[in-house]
UniProtKB/TrEMBL annotation:
UniProt key word Magnesium: yes
Gene Ontology molecular function terms on file: nucleoside diphosphate phosphatase activity; ribonucleoside triphosphate phosphatase activity; thiamine diphosphate phosphatase activity
Alphabetical UniProt keywords: Hydrolase, Magnesium
Listed name of the protein: Phosphatase NudJ
Subunit composition and interactions: Monomer.
CDD domains linked to this entry: NUDIX_Hydrolase
EC number: 3.6.1.-
One Pfam family recorded for the sequence: NUDIX
PANTHER family: NUDIX HYDROLASE 23 (PTHR43222), PHOSPHATASE NUDJ (PTHR43222:SF11)
Family: Belongs to the Nudix hydrolase family. NudJ subfamily.
Length: 153
């Protein structure tokens, strides 16, 4: 049975720079937003908070949904990712925290620096999400409703 991969990502901007991660995938360095899969029983918003902390050691408070994106990698067209991308603020840092396996560093880059490193983008969603953020796309978090049986609906 076909099922899309539900993922989250954070677009975090500070002083014209965006928080990204440099990660190793199949031996190649890639750039991406802090991002990852929603875990069983986890809300979409909480998944973004967790993934941002695990990948960057920054505490993140989502404030708005930037967009929902559907993408299939050309080399694996049988895969489909549904990405929920949020923006918000950094509320602190845990510098002693080890980053997730495969994450080499959390970096702050300008849009121009990100564009200059296009060959390293993990997917076209990286720049699409930033450009949507810069275009002012913001949707209320109340758009997302968690009806997990454990949450009480």
């Amino acid at each position: 049975m076909w099922k899309p991969n539900a993922t989250v990502a954070a677009v975090i901007e500070r002083d014209g720079r965006f928080l990204l991660v440099e990660e190793r995938i199949l031996g190649q360095r890639k750039l991406n937003q802090p991002a990852g899969h929603i875990e069983h029983g986890e809300s979409i918003v909480n998944a973004c908070v967790r993934e941002t902390l695990e990948e960057t050691a920054y505490h993140f408070q989502p404030e708005a949904l930037v967009g929902v994106y559907q993408w299939s990698p050309p080399e694996r067209p049988e895969l489909t990712y549904l990405r929920f991308t949020f923006t918000g603020t950094v509320t602190g840092q845990a510098p002693e925290r080890a980053l997730d396996d495969g994450i080499e560093a959390a970096v702050w880059l300008t849009r121009d620096e990100i564009v200059a490193r296009a060959a390293e983008h993990r997917s076209p969603l990286l720049l699409a999400c930033i450009d949507d953020y810069l275009a002012g796309r913001r949707y209320p978090l109340g758009l997302l409703r968690d009806f997990d049986a454990r949450s009480g609906g």
